[in-house]
Predict the structure.
Amino acid sequence: MLIAIIVTASNLFFDALAGYTFARMHFPGRNLIFYAFLATIMIPGHVTLVPKFMLLNEFGLINSYPGLILPSIIQVFGIFLMKQFFETVPVELEEAARIDGCGRFRTFWSVILPVSRPALVALGIYTFQGNWNEFLWPVIVTTTQDMYTLPLGMAMFRYEFKIEWTMLMAGSTMIALPMLIIFLSFQRLFIQGVASTGLKG
């Protein structure tokens, strides 16, 4: 829970900040940098596992909370999602804020973020769900049971010659409950956010 909440909160802030930068600020190479970010989405995640592990090992972050959290605090998909949404927000809102004396960050924090709740909820659910169910990276970066995440802990009920089906099913139900509650609680905003960012199929 701790890892999923920290990663989700980091993504909501940093992805929104980067998305707003690409959507509203003009600087040399903006489109080139954005397309370079998008190009990284085409790289399979498995390809980056070894370099990430080697880098964290150099910093002594293996089997630690920073090792589980830092590689996921910013996601290119989140930057793309927020950029798409911010481009639909009327520029007049920002112009009115600047007339009232707000700086760039104050405009972002006090004006843009409050009207971005649907997109933030959609991004939050995507990010929380992805980290809540993450299995591969914790397998690689953790070495002791006290650092295992829930999906990794569930694997402990599978042995070489026996599977604890009752414990496995009970644990799977408990792990699924938080995601079900979150989705049902924010369903309206989630659907609105997906629709407004142009991700509907």
